[in-house]
Automatic annotation (TrEMBL):
<dbReference type="InterPro" id="IPR004101">
    <property type="entry name" value="Mur_ligase_C"/>
</dbReference>
<feature type="domain" description="Mur ligase central">
    <location>
        <begin position="108"/>
        <end position="297"/>
    </location>
</feature>
<keyword id="KW-0961">Cell wall biogenesis/degradation</keyword>
<keyword id="KW-0067">ATP-binding</keyword>
<dbReference type="GO" id="GO:0106418">
    <property type="term" value="F:UDP-N-acetylmuramate-L-alanyl-gamma-D-glutamyl-meso-2,6-diaminoheptanedioate ligase activity"/>
</dbReference>
<keyword id="KW-0436">Ligase</keyword>
<protein>
    <recommendedName>
        <fullName>UDP-N-acetylmuramate--L-alanyl-gamma-D-glutamyl-meso-2,6-diaminoheptandioate ligase</fullName>
        <ecNumber>6.3.2.45</ecNumber>
    </recommendedName>
</protein>
<keyword id="KW-0573">Peptidoglycan synthesis</keyword>
<keyword id="KW-0131">Cell cycle</keyword>
<feature type="domain" description="Mur ligase N-terminal catalytic">
    <location>
        <begin position="2"/>
        <end position="101"/>
    </location>
</feature>
<dbReference type="InterPro" id="IPR036615">
    <property type="entry name" value="Mur_ligase_C_dom_sf"/>
</dbReference>
<feature type="binding site">
    <location>
        <begin position="110"/>
        <end position="116"/>
    </location>
    <ligand>
        <name>ATP</name>
    </ligand>
</feature>
<dbReference type="InterPro" id="IPR000713">
    <property type="entry name" value="Mur_ligase_N"/>
</dbReference>
<dbReference type="InterPro" id="IPR036565">
    <property type="entry name" value="Mur-like_cat_sf"/>
</dbReference>
<comment type="function">
    <text>Reutilizes the intact tripeptide L-alanyl-gamma-D-glutamyl-meso-diaminopimelate by linking it to UDP-N-acetylmuramate.</text>
</comment>
<comment type="similarity">
    <text>Belongs to the MurCDEF family. Mpl subfamily.</text>
</comment>
<dbReference type="InterPro" id="IPR005757">
    <property type="entry name" value="Mpl"/>
</dbReference>
């Protein structure tokens, strides 16, 4: 069977392509703005990717077209599929029909930390000898690829709340019917498709409605947005995560910091020491992700002590505070953060680790929500942990980025050219400096440009 994937280089659709290839399908695809790591994965698997959305990419006609949620009416390939009657389906719909049936699905949802937590959970199960299948919206270094079928009934999936396709506006995760569900956190995001937080909460409650009574829902205590979703109705057992270390917590799971940057901590279950994690990651947010993964792994039979040992060997994910260059004493990182909360937690985690060493953030507000200016009042506060921040304002942005940064007291610089950012970063760094480049896209190759400039 030949399937053609429209939007194949997106993190979700690219992973889907890998699974389809492993199942034995002939897989081709089309996309624009192709860049690593997904383009690299697809090339390594021999999957033919066409540039652009031309109707001729669909001749001879495939048996099925999987349409990514970035596609809309008016797209030439979409119009050709509809006009010629080629069968089509959404990405989540294909995953549910062709792969998730009769499997124990462990789904990781939430506004932040999905990719990291899904990678941790898949690695824990792998470490425990359970050989899970997984689909992750990124590339975990422990595996080197973002998806596989696995050799057991367990399947770990990153459960995104973004919509499924132009013809299916339900969140992707509604298709997955998990038995084990993590909800990491819940904030307003995806302003291009959700009018407010309540609309997102409705989708999360639809997700909870699909979890069976003998399943498990795991979430942090004290998060009012999640509590409100649970209060709408929950027919499944729950376990809560206490991330504050408070002794009067009612949470099933607790943590105790050993190092303030959360690179070393203890895990407690119902008040009893259950494991200890000493790893390469930093930040309270990563500790929270790790605790959720430990709790979910226990639901399928992995002891917390074993899960904690697995996390000690967890290597992280590409594009999640990934050290990509060390030049003349300057460390350059690539990070996917594109929401004020994610920006803040990443920078705070790095600050806790490096002390008073200089941190320079370089940020591209590329997501649809950022481009719309929804979070513009939070930008300055989100970067407090950095010493200096360079913001890229692309042409066509509908709001004035420089005006939003006026309260930054000289710590924020707005630039309209990538070359200008490269020159200014080069002038500001020295031995012991840390440069964190934050974008959910390719950012015109600025990572390599900065590393090269520092080396000169």
């Amino acid at each position: 069977m030949h399937i053609h994937i429209l939007g194949i280089c997106g993190t979700f659709m690219g992973s889907l392509a890998l699974l389809a290839k492993e199942l034995g399908y002939q897989v081709t695809g089309s996309d624009e703005h192709v860049y690593p790591p997904m383009s690299t994965q697809l090339s390594e698997q021999g999957i033919d990717v066409k540039e652009g959305y031309l109707p001729e990419h669909l001749t001879p006609a495939p048996d099925l077209v999987v349409i990514g949620n970035a596609m809309s009416r008016g797209n030439p390939a979409v119009e050709y599929v509809l006009d010629t009657g080629i069968p089509y389906i959404s990405g989540p719909g294909w995953l549910a029909q062709h792969l998730l049936q009769n499997r124990w699905v462990l789904a990781v949802s939430g506004t932040h930390g999905k990719t990291t937590t899904t990678s941790m959970l898949a690695w824990i199960l792998e470490y425990a000898g359970m050989s899970p299948g997984f689909l992750i919206g990124g590339v975990p270094k422990n595996f080197g690829y973002s998806a596989r079928l696995g050799e057991s009934s367990f399947f770990v999936v990153e459960a995104d709340e973004y919509d499924s396709a132009f013809f299916d506006k339900r969140s992707k995760f509604v298709h997955y019917q998990p038995r084990t569900l993590i909800i990491n956190n819940l904030e307003y995001d995806h302003a291009d498709i959700f009018p407010d937080l309540a609309a997102i909460q409705t989708q999360f409650h639809h997700l909870i409605r699909t979890v069976p009574g003998n399943g498990l829902v795991i979430y942090p205590e004290g998060e009012s947005a999640i509590d409100q979703v649970i209060e709408k109705g929950c027919w499944t057992s729950t376990q809560t995560l206490n991330l504050t270390g408070s002794s009067d917590s009612q949470g099933s799971w607790q943590v105790q910091l050993i190092k303030p940057d959360a690179s070393h901590f203890e895990v407690y279950l119902n008040g009893q020491l259950a494991g200890e994690v000493n790893w390469e990651l930093r930040g309270i947010h990563n500790m929270a992700n790790g605790l959720a993964a430990i709790a979910a792994a226990r639901h399928v039979g992995v002891l917390p002590e074993v899960a904690s040992k697995a996390l000690c060997k967890f290597e992280g994910i590409k594009r999640r505070l990934e050290l990509i260059a060390e030049v003349n004493g300057v460390q350059v990182y690539d990070d996917f953060a594109h929401h004020p909360t994610a920006i803040a937690t990443t920078l705070e985690g790095l600050r806790a680790s490096v002390g008073n060493e200089k941190i320079i953030a370089v940020i591209e507000p590329r997501s649809n929500t950022m481009k719309m200016g929804v979070h513009k009042q939070q930008l300055v506060e989100s970067t407090q942990a950095a010493d200096l921040v360079f913001w890229y304002q692309p042409q066509g942005m509908e709001w004035d980025l420089s005006a939003a940064l006026a309260q930054a007291n000289g710590k924020a610089v707005c630039c309209e050219q990538v070359s200008e950012i490269v020159d200014q970063v080069q002038a500001q760094v020295g031995p012991g400096s840390h440069v964190v480049i934050m974008s959910n896209g390719g950012f015109q190759g600025i990572h390599q440009q900065i590393a090269k400039a520092i080396a000169e």
